[in-house]
Design goal:
- This protein is an alpha/beta fold.
- The protein folds into two domains: 75 residues, Arc Repressor Mutant, subunit A; 191 residues, D-Maltodextrin-Binding Protein, domain 2, CATH 3.40.190.
- It is 39% helix and 24% strand.
- The protein is globular.
Length: 280
């Protein structure tokens, strides 16, 4: 029976997939690019086949993608456990969505620091369903529908989604002819928003935060939840066009295990989130 692959080689594979190149993975892991190449070759030999369709461009084949999909949450758990150990007892470990974190949470963090000045906030981004009883998170924020299953969890809706059409102010004179921007995670938004122009090809980004950066740069029209672009609207980086909005039953919700909420810092964090969501 052949020995199992080393954790080091598996970690290298995950880091190459995360960063998109062997050089970036080497830099993050503190090893040389040749060591990365050697460990990947060793891993493929142990597993009995290639894991990349194009090693030079760090493009995984189906087998490699499936393996990374299973390994990535495990290494995230290890990373979070180590961060938790180093941070000590005064920390809150949050799993949320990347676009929510970038567009809504991060602009508000200075106000959170006034409430919890001495508490480490460890933010991880993911779209999968997190099991709070098994994984190293204290709480989650997710985009959910009205039928979400919250059994065993303390949960609170932060706000319902209200979709609006936005663009850079420089596009105002010709916004109806502007190109469409979209996000791969939300392919249905343009179909839902019937009042939006629908002609021409769209430029699709991996995340809505990337889509909004493109809209701010004047590259086209984007459909987004009003609450996620409040800061950009207030600072006139974006403007609402068309005058139409679409209120949806889905929204963003906070959840935590009741046992975790025995921690007063987590209770303060929950109260702060609810106050921010209500505009207080």
């Amino acid at each position: 029976m052949s020995p199992p692959p080393s954790l080091r080689a598996l970690r290298v594979l995950v880091e190459v997939a995360r960063s998109g190149s062997a050089a970036s993975a080497a830099s993050r892991l503190g090893i040389t690019a040749s060591a990365v190449s050697h460990l990947l070759a060793e891993l493929e030999a142990q597993l009995g086949g290639p894991l990349f369709s194009d090693r030079r461009r760090a493009q995984l084949n189906d087998k490699g993608a499936r393996l990374v999909q299973r390994l990535d949450p495990a290494f995230q758990s290890i990373d979070m456990a180590l961060q938790d150990f180093r941070a000590g007892p005064s920390c809150i470990r949050l799993s949320t969505l990347s676009s929510f974190a970038l567009l809504w949470l991060i602009p508000r963090l200075p106000r959170l620091r006034q409430v919890l000045p001495d508490v480490d906030i460890l933010v991880s981004t993911d779209t999968r369903c997190v099991d709070l009883s098994l994984e190293p998170y204290d709480c989650v924020i997710r985009w959910v529908g009205p039928q979400a299953d919250w059994r065993g969890l303390d949960h609170h809706l932060l706000f319902h989604e209200e979709l609006i059409l936005v663009a850079s102010p420089r596009l105002l004179p010709r916004w109806q002819d502007a190109p469409r921007l979209g996000a791969r995670s939300r392919p249905q938004d343009w179909d839902l928003f019937h009042a939006a122009p629908a002609s021409g090809a769209a430029t699709i980004f991996e995340t809505r935060s990337q889509m909004i950066e493109a809209a701010i740069a004047g590259l086209g029209l984007a459909i987004i939840d009003r609450r996620l672009v409040e800061s950009a609207l207030a600072n006139t980086l974006l403007t609402q066009v068309g005058g139409h909005s679409l209120k949806r039953p889905e929204g963003y919700a906070f959840a935590a295990r009741p046992l975790a909420l025995e921690n007063k810092n987590l209770r303060q964090f929950r109260r702060w989130l609810l106050d921010e969501a209500r505009g207080q």
